[in-house]
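S.,

As promised, the adenosine-5'-triphosphate run. Input:
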Amino acid sequence: MTDTIELTSNSVEQTIALGEKLANCLHAGDWVTLDGELGAGKTHLIRGIAQGMGADGHTVASPTFVLMHEYEPADQDKPLLIHIDAYRLERPADLLNLGFEDVAEESVLLIEWACKVSDVLPDDRLQITLKHLSDSSRQITFTGYGQVAGRMTDIESATRPRK
Ligand SMILES: Nc1ncnc2c1ncn2[C@@H]1O[C@H](COP(=O)(O)OP(=O)(O)OP(=O)(O)O)[C@@H](O)[C@H]1O
Ligand SMILES: [Mg+2]
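Predicted complex:
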């Protein structure tokens, strides 16, 4: 079973388009973690996911100072998106005090800098890692953990570029 998918994005637009395709594979209750150095493209990928869910992608920005943003989908059947930046959290356990627990089950959680809170992440999650290849190219790797590992074939067919 495929549990890791490695893709290359050669532009901001490709990263956003990838996020839009990935959005079709995400469901309420999913946890998605995003890691990669400053400027790797985590926020742009989340912008694509938000657009793919029908939310306004222009409102997507790193929640650096407020730590958490919420994006409402245009379509009531789609989940709420909760976008968290863990970069400035002092302790991993602080993640659990941000106030999303009441809506977590009906939301997709997207966590930038999840490496800072790895101790408190659930066993079931989609891990995304972004790496600089050049000024405009990024390697983007998806790894499914727990139950999400069983969904990687679907995620692969939704996100793999057509030849
Ligand atoms: N292929 C690409 N995909 C995504 N971003 C790209 C790409 N090529 C260049 N960029 C640039 O890289 C930067 C990515 O910024 P972004 O805010 O998405 O990164 P980030 O990983 O969220 O950083 P931070 O850790 O500071 O929140 C932007 O300036 C964008 O224009
Ligand atoms: Mg960011």
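The mean pLDDT is 92. Residues 9, 11-12, 14-15, 36, 38-44, 62, 112, 136-138 surround adenosine-5'-triphosphate (ligand 1) (CB under 6 Å).

- D.
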